[in-house]
Amino acid sequence: MNKEQKGAVIQDLAEKFANNPYFYITDASGMSVAKTNKLRRLCFERGIEYKVVKNTLIEKALETLEADYTPFKESVLKGFSGIMFHPESGKDAAKLIQDFLKDNKDSIKLKGASIESDLFIGHGELDNLAKLKSKTELIGDVIMLLQSPAKTVIGGLQSGGSNLAGILKTLSEKEAA
Fold first, then answer.
1. Which GO cellular component terms, listed alphabetically, does the Swiss-Prot or TrEMBL entry include (predicted)?
2. What pLDDT score does 155 carry?
3. In this structure, which CATH number among 3.30.1330.10, 3.30.70.1730, 3.40.50.1820, 3.50.50.60 belongs to the domain 3-132?
4. pTM of the predicted model as reported, rounded to 2 decimal places
5. In the Cβ-directed half-sphere of 20, how many Cα atoms lie within 13 Å?
């Protein structure tokens, strides 16, 4: 790969990093060709882009971003590196890795992930990443929490209104008798 080609790869990666707030760096160095093809197919089916790139090119592309990726340089960008990009969700790639590991034990390892510029380093973070809620899910939870007290008050007022009507009817019947 000549200098121009490397520059084009760095430019492409920098754009992808800037436009995708969620990316995972994995190590799939021990996988056979068949397993690698299976992983790529699974990524394609779930809308996740998977690329294998040299660590030095990843490092140079990360340097163009505003966020500090120094911890990645120190511990993640060593050995074989594949990058998974997903434009919409921070947990889809983690779930894909977990699903892939069910059938293919010890075949792929999470080296690190960036979720909205927050860094997660090491394979031990995989469970935490798979449990992350998306922004839409969090907004839904907040709306539900905000609606809960209002629904209780409205329900109380509505039931109280029917009770009040019943009491007034009983009182009016007593007066008439």
1. ribonucleoprotein complex; ribosome
2. 67
3. 3.30.70.1730
4. 0.73
5. 24
